Amino acid sequence: MSKSMVGSHAVWPHEDDPIFGLAKRAGEAKEKFGKEKVIDSTLGSLVDDDGNLICFDSVYDELKNLPNSEIAAYAQVAGQGDFLESVIEVLFKEYKPEGHIRAVATPGGTGAVRHGIWNYTEPGDTFIVGDWYWSPYQTMADEFERKLKIYPFFNEKGGYNVEAFKENFNSIIDSQKRVLTIFNTPANNPTGYSISDEEWDEILEIIKEKAKDKENKITILLDVAYIDYAGNDRRSFFKKFGNLPDNIFVMIAFSMSKGYTMYGMRSGAAIGISSNESIADEFYYSLSHANRSNWSNGVRGAMKVLTNLYRDKDKKAKYEAELESIRKLLVDRAKAFVDASKEVGLVTLPYRDGFFVTIPCENSKDVSEELIKDNLFAVPLKKGLRFAVCAVSKEKCAKSPALIKKALDKING
Amino acid sequence: MSKSMVGSHAVWPHEDDPIFGLAKRAGEAKEKFGKEKVIDSTLGSLVDDDGNLICFDSVYDELKNLPNSEIAAYAQVAGQGDFLESVIEVLFKEYKPEGHIRAVATPGGTGAVRHGIWNYTEPGDTFIVGDWYWSPYQTMADEFERKLKIYPFFNEKGGYNVEAFKENFNSIIDSQKRVLTIFNTPANNPTGYSISDEEWDEILEIIKEKAKDKENKITILLDVAYIDYAGNDRRSFFKKFGNLPDNIFVMIAFSMSKGYTMYGMRSGAAIGISSNESIADEFYYSLSHANRSNWSNGVRGAMKVLTNLYRDKDKKAKYEAELESIRKLLVDRAKAFVDASKEVGLVTLPYRDGFFVTIPCENSKDVSEELIKDNLFAVPLKKGLRFAVCAVSKEKCAKSPALIKKALDKING
Questions:
Q1: Fewest Cβ atoms closer than 10 Å to its Cβ: which of A39, A186, B103, B216?
Q2: Could you give the C-alpha distances from B236 to A220, B182, B197, B260, B323, in angstroms and in order?
Q3: Do domains A8-57+316-412 and A73-312 have the same CATH topology?
């Protein structure tokens, strides 16, 4: 007999998460050599200069002051009504696109991305994303028996590779008549790039051209997990998603993880935009069915926190002040890293916003191991090294590029 | 063009959850006539005699006293190690089966059931359950393109219909060579039935007979969402799942929703048992992959609460005392309902434990509507009416059977 009991589609390597393994080694180094001697750039969470996880007081005071029943009770399958109303405002701010907008609560941004891939592709379909991407997109493609096709993210000028997008988008839509295209922007994970409004105009022109064929079905999935650290003007692109043809559906994966320092509370939302009301309704009911089938309903206490921090003026002001101070901390750290990189001649991908700066390189695993000798821990990606400025003090951000340059030179010559 | 943008498998009726709609009408009736005049038996949550949701102090004091970072940080994909160790002890107590046991954290019991159906069947497969079942099993079958086959739950004596199970189990395993069979016990939702140890022996004999063919793959999925209200001796059946042949895999869906009054915190676990270590490991990695692809990781604060309420002796004692007092409240209410039913000649399904008593009947929707005229709100099922003793005071539990009998006689003559 075969020594397997799961379905044939559900057999996966017996491997633990590599980032977690690296974070564990960083923890051991801190024990051994002292926190100040170690640069731990492994985790995608905000950490203060003393190495403690940043948790907004405005958020946790609110959570802990909720009546127990507000945390204990089941939420509705699609999410609490006041949360769904609030999250739309919180997401778009003054850039709400025109159209029919619906929201459905999900566990983090992951749940929303998962629904995008599951609900808006057919089994076996190919969906596309630029080649610097959050690796769970591939995990999901594997899990759900879809295919992920990647295209070059950057062009030679260090801008978004609109030409490569066009070629791949057109090729898939022509053969499949349906395509899901994911953009992780602004504040892309892992590069820190944000697609500009001008680049968005070019992208949307390509998409609209293909939407002229009314048989084509195009879904744009925007993963905006890091948007709250990108500065408010980075939301202006949302306006462009109003008044699109019926056969372009736009879906946004919103996460409370980073913007509310609530990673472990697993709350987010999928927001859908359509010029056609029945297509917006279809989104709501299709995702509600998927909610019920996968996790029943969401974390009610987290939803209530977002709602209250949006609707109460004083709480809102306190929350926004905390967020802004941490956003500035992040900007400072990233600037220190990028400036120091220029000084030592370390090439980084063009950083705009967010938690990460990425150094393109070959043999990233070897480079990462070499850096561990200097007690610097950074995550090796397929095509580079991810440095988490969110987790490293400004001082250490300024020191790291020289160490990385040295390791790169040693490994890649 | 077709006015649909989702994949063809993801088109679902534009319908809201009927239980929620009924609960809303009950709420309106309470507003209009006063709480004391309305019997609201719609929701599957524990409510005290004054109509307030029961939230254990031991649980919410613990949650609210956690350091913010314990709530804020990401949990590991499979769940925190101390939680996974604790949940196995909490689940089995003194009845831990022999074998290789692994646990993976999930959002409530739903996430674990979902993994059971997704990971342990092939697309298109049929899985089986008795005909009094939690309706999301069917929702999941639809969502994941599996088929649900039901067989008669009760035999003529009011016991578990082992013969009907045998016939259906054998027929599916013979044709499919693989079968997933779900049992929602003890304290079945919606009937309140608990399969006895003697019935389990008969069921396992049937299963073991088919396991002699080493090509057959059999997965037993136990949904024990209500086990904490079933009395400790109802766990003795767990011992029977030790030392089974390799091709019988046992998976348990554990939920913190009811036992910890943490419905809205979405925490639970899937626990797998196998005599074969590599099959237990396969379970762990297969479900970890599914975790990562669907919701990334679980609610860390909820996991920590369970761990602390298990590991700290004083906290454990306080939690267990609260649970026991509410369990007794539930036993009293159910007894009041069942006794009053006998008095007025209302036939109920054989209740043993849990949140619900069910009255088998035809035209349940009409009966439910008729009862609303008396301000009694109970959930119509396909084959009966579900009365939530968890949500109704003892006094009202005693009054309800007469009202139900009257409505039944009026509608069904």
A1: B216
A2: 52, 18, 8, 21, 19
A3: no
Q: Say yes or no: ipTM exceeds 0.90.
A: yes
Is the pLDDT at A290 greater than 70? The verdict is yes
Chain B residues in contact with A76 by the CB 8 A cut-off are 17, 20
Task: Give, in words, the CATH class of B73-312.
Answer: alpha beta
**DSSP characters for B28-42?**
HHHHHH-GGG-EEE-
Instruction: Answer whether B58's CB lies under 8 Å from A68's CB.
Output: no
Instruction: Transcribe A218-259 into DSSP letters.
Output: EEEEEE-TTGGGS-GGGGGGGGGGSS--TTEEEEEEEESTTT
Strand partners for A378: A41
Closest CB from B7, B53, B77 relative to A17: B77
The interaxial angle of helices B313-344 and B300-311, nearest 10 deg, is 100
Contact list, A296 vs chain B (CB under 8 Å): 107-108, 110, 136, 266
Q: Is the dihedral of CA B24, B27, B33, B38 positive or negative?
A: positive
Q: What is the pLDDT of residue B231?
A: 81
Give the residue on A whose Cα is nearest the Cα of B57: A68
Instruction: Determine, for residues B295 and A10 on separate chains, whether the beta-carbon distance falls below 8 Å.
Output: no
Dist. CA B112–CA B120, nearest whole Å: 11
A170 touching B (Cβ < 8 Å): no
Distance (Å) from the C-alpha of residue A61 to the closest C-alpha of chain B? Answer: 9
The predicted model gives A148-157 an average pLDDT of: 97
* Nearest residue to A358 (alpha-carbon basis) of A368, A350, A366: A350
Q: How many cross-chain Cβ pairs, A to B, lie less than 8 Å apart?
A: 266
Cα distance between residue B130 and residue B150, in whole Å = 5
Model pLDDT for residues B364-406, shown as the tens digit of each residue: 999 999 999 999 999 999 999 999 999 999 999 999 999 999 9
The domain made up of A8-57+316-412 has a fold known as Aspartate Aminotransferase, domain 1 (3.90.1150)
Model pTM score: 0.97
Chain A, 221 to 280: residues with Cβ < 8 Å from chain B are 246-247, 249, 257, 261-266, 274, 276, 278-279
